[in-house]
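Please discuss these two lines.
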Amino acid sequence: PLPFKRLVVAWVSLTILLGALLLFAAEAPALSFMDALFISCNAVTSTGLASFNISRFSVGSQVLVAILVQLGSSTLILTVPVALRLYAINRLIPPQARRLNLHDLRRVPQWFVDREAGLLLLKVVAAYHVLIYAFGFVLLAVGFAIQPTGERGVCGYLAPSNETRPFECSPIGFAAFHTISAFNNAGFSIVPSSLTPFADNGVVLFGIALLVMAGNVLFPVLLRYVVAACSRFTSESSPRQVYLRYLLINSRRFIPYIFSPQQTALLLCAQLCLLLAQAFVSCMGSKDSSICRQWWFMAVM
């Protein structure tokens, strides 16, 4: 059997340790090694807890935290079984057979369809990440740009040890970091007060909420719809159509997050009902009218 569990444990452990060493080397002596290890662990596991003010980090260290969050992404780790399956298939077939085309075969072997469908699935997952990240980044950058200049929060200090010389966040830095953090449900923010300065900014809150759902509860729904859309707009005579339909029918052979059409619709309806119920309870149980104005954001978070 393929050592999937051991690979994931080794990957997470080594990434946490390497991230802690790099953070400690960049921020010492202000940051202790235990704090660096704690932040690295919470970044890779998307827990979002921090024992040190991340806004006091240098830009390089903030980029490192974002990279650690991405390296621990559950939506990317789930592609590991697909990659391992493809590796096993390629080891079992002769080198000359790897260059075959669907039109070259009278009878298509199972391994051939599995390999081509698996490769296509990896491309679809990669494209999904790129599209969601790009859309979320644009939303957050626009939302940040329309925020009044004096209300954008602080993203760092000219001297990390001196908090009397702060500088405001930049649209690109704010959007890039929070896009990665929100999609991976990490909860990290380079603004000390988190998203409090943007409490009345609907564009930023909508972007964060969309990214949180796209990387979590709606990931199986959107991933199946992306594969279905690719199948719909692919020519019937194209070999890719065969692989896409195979993915829609036998997707659980590759990845556990693509459900049947009925299961996908049920999951979507259940999530919407739960979000509405949570929003209603949050609004009715609070005396703060601002919570009711942003009920949809409170429900998602």
User: Anything to note?
Assistant: The chain is about 65% helix and 5% strand. The mean pLDDT is 82. The longest strand covers residues 162-168.
